[in-house]
Write a structure and sequence with these properties.
It contains three helices and four strands; from the N terminus they run βαββααβ. By secondary structure, it is α+β, with helices and mostly antiparallel strands.
């Protein structure tokens, strides 16, 4: 099952993001079987202010357990994290 995950950084947390970015990217690359698409959400000025992911997991409980392991989550970067089940129609890798 696929989920779209939207994470919004806490205000003023860019330094937390930067300090944990290498560990986060290592985590993301090591879990490419789960994180199908991902990247930072940018402000109008081009500053990183959140994250958007498409994840493939068994269910919502598995998603929540997986997301809790992300170094960004462990560092307390996010003000909010929301997820929605999603159906991949266009551009799906085979």
């Amino acid at each position: 099952m696929y989920f779209i995950v939207n994470c919004t950084d806490k205000k003023g947390a860019l330094e937390i993001r930067k300090a944990n970015r290498d560990a986060h990217l290592e985590f993301a690359h090591a879990n490419a079987d789960t994180i199908k698409v991902g990247g930072p959400v940018l402000s109008d000025e081009g500053e990183m202010i959140g994250s958007c992911l498409i994840c493939e997991v068994e269910d919502k409980a598995a998603l929540d357990a997986f997301l809790a392991k992300d170094p960004y989550a462990k560092a307390g970067l996010f003000e909010s994290v929301t997820s929605q089940p999603w159906k991949w129609v266009l551009g799906k890798p085979e």
